[in-house]
Amino acid sequence: MDERGYKENLRKMILDMAQKELDSYVSQKGVQKYFEGNVDKIINENIKKITQGMGVNKTYSRVLKKGANQDNISSIARTIKSEETFKSKNELVKFAKYLGINVNTKNSYNQVLRKVSTHIYSNKGEYSQKYFSYKRGEDEYILEPERIKKDLVESYKSKTRNDMRSIARLLDLQVEDEDGAEEIRKKIINYIMKEKLSKK
Fold it and tell me: Source organism's superkingdom (predicted)?
């Protein structure tokens, strides 16, 4: 698949996931337009976080994505062993703990490897859905569409909250710090209705 194909697949996946959030908004067309216009920016921000982030987490997500695509436990074990990070038993134990696997530090490298490989194999459906392999030029990034969707939705909420706060300020209307966009919108509508009724 070429770079454009990866980008379009990821965009479509995130927009489909975000679509489920639209039901809770009054202006669905406005939200959809915002999502479509900002999804690339949020994807780029996530890629930037990965490139600036810790190498170990990048290795974990890469191994989980690759492991989820393997046919058997032995192939997953080979995938893990091919990573420089997991040449040491200590690092493999850390990975096992990250995955929530109970391992005894007295176990041999191969015993820990078997437990980790078995865990990945048993949860391959979850890991293959959680991670998305995204290629840009020569680089490959393992992204989490669910996290990107959450960032996209949160950026919209933050924008609308700020927009509503600006309108409330113009109307000299008091709003609480914890008020969300919808609460502020209701306060604005109530205020305008009262103003209109008082002028009749």
Answer: Bacteria
pTM for this entry? 0.75
* pLDDT tens per residue, range 60-86: 998 999 999 999 999 999 999 999 999
Q: Which residues of 110-126 are buried (b: 16+ CB within 10 A; e: fewer)?
A: eebbbbbbebbbeebee
**What band does 19 get if pLDDT is binned at 50, 70 and 90?**
confident
Assign 3-class secondary structure to the chain: CCHHHHHHHHHHHHHHHHHCCHHHCCCHHHHHHHHHHHHHHHHHHHHHHHHHCCHHHHHHHHHHHHHHCCCCHHHHHHHHHCCHHHHCHHHHHHHHHHCCCCCCCCCCHHHHHHHHHHHHHHCHHHHHHHCEEEEECCEEEEECHHHHHHHHHHHHHHHHHHHHHHHHHHCCCCCCCCCCHHHHHHHHHHHHHHHHHHCC
CA distance 79 to 65: 10
Phi, psi dihedral angles at 199 (to 5 degrees):
-90, -5
Report d(CA 32, CA 156) in Å as an integer. Answer: 10
Q: Give tens-digit pLDDT for 41-60.
A: 999 998 888 877 655 578 89
